């Protein structure tokens, strides 16, 4: 059904076998279908990284921007065309490291953008360096003895910075992921959906996973739903909605200010 949105001439994708990016793309398109987001009313913006190649495989108008700068490009687009739905696809390094400062200020402003962070727990495209969302103790090309860096819980970061919707799911939990993307696109404000999609090629290989199926089983067995048992089995693997609030939306406030100034 979703093939109508695929740029077939650009297939196959560059993604490795077993990568979760295709699962996220399919789930996102199913959420778009539910919310009536089409190429006529929606633009997809991405930064740099494996997941940021996604818009190139879709028939939606898109902007493939610079590393970490998807949010600023999307901000300009939304301010110029507030009638459009703007969805940003980003990776953990792109969104939380290079683009980290843009991320917290986008949360604070509450402009109506939907950001999907595909958290593969590494810099996949550049050979597996650890990122700010890589779990502590993980092995990578830049942490050969195990990372001693404490990762962000990007959901808590975004909620604290003022995002009006933040929710985490995984590529194993696709129905919930679809629901969160749908809710994010419906939220009139800044929404962040994190999807755990651990990179098998780099993170998996460096951290003892034998194949992508084992990694899927790991997500199945280690993620917990917030509120079910109230416990976190593993840091940043608690799934659910972290915040869902209403606050003034930035482009609305800008339009009101513009009208006030015109009356002076
Ligand atoms: Fe996916 Fe990792 Fe391959 Fe990138 S390097 S396409 S994240 S499996």
Task: Explain what you see.
There is one protein chain. This protein has one domain: Thiamin diphosphate (ThDP)-binding fold, Pyr/PP domains (Rossmann fold, 3-Layer(aba) Sandwich). Helices cover 36% and strands 16% of the residues. It contains 9 helices and 8 strands. The protein has helices spanning 21-35, 70-80, 92-98, 100-109, 154-161, 174-186, 200-206, 212-222, 250-263; strands spanning 42-46, 62-64, 85-91, 114-119, 165-170, 191-196, 224-225, 238-244. The chain has an 8-stranded mixed sheet with strand order 2-1-3-4-6-5-8-7, sandwiched between helices. Helix 6 (174-186) links the parallel strand 5 and strand 6 (191-196). The mean pLDDT is 94. The structure holds iron/sulfur cluster. The site of iron/sulfur cluster (SF4) has 12 residues, from helix 7.
User: Beta fraction of the residues?
Assistant: 15-25%
Ligands in the model, by name, code or SMILES, are: iron/sulfur cluster
Main sheet specs: 8 strands, mixed
> CATH first level: which class?
Alpha Beta
What is the percent of helical residues? 25-40%
H/E element order = HEEHEHHEHEHEHHEEH
Tell the overall outline: globular
The chain-level mean pLDDT equals 94
| CATH topology type | Rossmann fold
Number of strands: 8
Count of all domains: 1
